[in-house]
Amino acid sequence: MRYFKVLLLLVLVFAGCKNRSDSAKQKKMAIIVSTLNNPWFVFLAQTAAAQAKTLGYESKIFDSQNNTALETDHFENAIASGYSAILFNPTDANGSVVNVLKAKKAGVPVFCMDREVNTADGATSQILSDSYSGSVSIGKYFVQSMHKKGKYVELLGLVADNNTWSRSKGFHSLVDYYPGLKMVAQQSADFDRNKAMEVMESILQAHPDIDAVFCGNDAMAMGAYQALVAAGKANRVKVFGFDGAEDVVQAIKENKIAATGMQFPKVMAQTAANYADEYFKGKRDFPKKIPVAVELVTNDNINDYIAYGKKD
């Protein structure tokens, strides 16, 4: 009889452990990103998925295609399908707020990566590049490279994204102190390479004698460079980007692009997945915002970097 009781106890303990194990396995992460039409965001999403897998969780990547309506569909599907956390790269700082609040109401934590939403009460945590400071560094190098004079163009990203304005403001906080540097055009190209090429072609018709282009991301920098090549001006116009994307890292090595701001998507994606794991295990006290430093990359230090990060 005593043996039977001990055996029964062991069976119950084992069953309890198994149930907890099964419960843990049922947790899964939705990875909702603004677009997969940009290699930088592909890397961000895939890194988040890889970290989720390393931690023992299933995950699925959802592409919002820079469309807040599609993003809303993804949130509704993720919540209805029982995803336990959302690793989120927002499409619109204001327009995405409603989706984050919807997830919060459903008890699903949201961890923002790279881009933020304009609410202090929605996301469990926001892990963001320090775009402003990174662009200050680019601005300083821009001034030095231009010898404090010349005409330049600025290509802005998505106007609804806070990163667009953080980068622009950081850049101008320094460059605007030099009256010899004159901005002759400022236009949005939506962080898109093809649109940047088209916008740059149009600007060059009105301002054929520019000396430099500052772009809010590397995709636009490559698009601008393509337009300059087509116009026969690539050798005399300096192009500055922001991201640390693979093609721009290579272009800096080849002296085609002057500089970029290296972001660290691996850090942001892995931190978001790690935070979700900690949330599943009971943690609730997370920092609301975590700034991730951006580093200036030029031909002088390019050998210290690889695409999307720094060499080990």
From TrEMBL:
Claim: Signal is one of the keywords in the record: yes
Gene3D superfamilies: 3.40.50.2300
InterPro entries: Peripla_BP_I, SBP_2_dom
PROSITE patterns: PROKAR_LIPOPROTEIN
Keyword Signal belongs to the record: yes
Keywords assigned by UniProt, alphabetized: Signal
Coarse class of the protein's main subcellular location: other
PANTHER family named among the record's database cross-references: D-ALLOSE-BINDING PERIPLASMIC PROTEIN-RELATED
Location in or out of the cell: Cell envelope
Periplasmic binding protein domain mapped to chain residues: 30-283
Family per record: Belongs to the bacterial solute-binding protein 2 family.
Pfam families hit by this protein: Peripla_BP_4 (PF13407)
The name this protein goes by in its record: D-ribose ABC transporter substrate-binding protein
Source species: Mucilaginibacter sabulilitoris
